[in-house]
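User: Some background: our group keeps a shared notebook of sequences we're curious about, and every so often someone picks one and asks for a predicted structure to add to the entry. Today it's my turn. The entry only has the sequence so far, pasted here. Could you supply the structure so I can complete it?
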Amino acid sequence: RVPQVHEPAAFAEWIDSRARLDTSKIVLSLSPEAVRLSARPLAGSNECICLSGPEGGLEPREESAAAAAGFVPVTLGSRVLRADTAPIALLSALVVR
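Assistant: Of course. Here's the predicted structure to add to the notebook entry:
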């Protein structure tokens, strides 16, 4: 299956539209409570919705909204990646798993 990249949308609208979907959802997080991606499998799902924020990460209210919509906060490790490289690293980690 080919990954889908969607058109830009307002954050609240995008989160609301994904909350009802029954698939694995992860959000890249700088939070100390975020789990390492390799430490928590994606429940055997073949599909995953990934959310990556801007430089410096999502705002706390945005991350809370994502969590309320079923997104699990994950980290790729101790390094803070740039906004343009974080999604590439995330996709690479998902493919290697």
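Suggested note for the entry: The first strand starts at residue 24 and ends at 28. Residues 35 and 52 are 15 Å apart (CA to CA).
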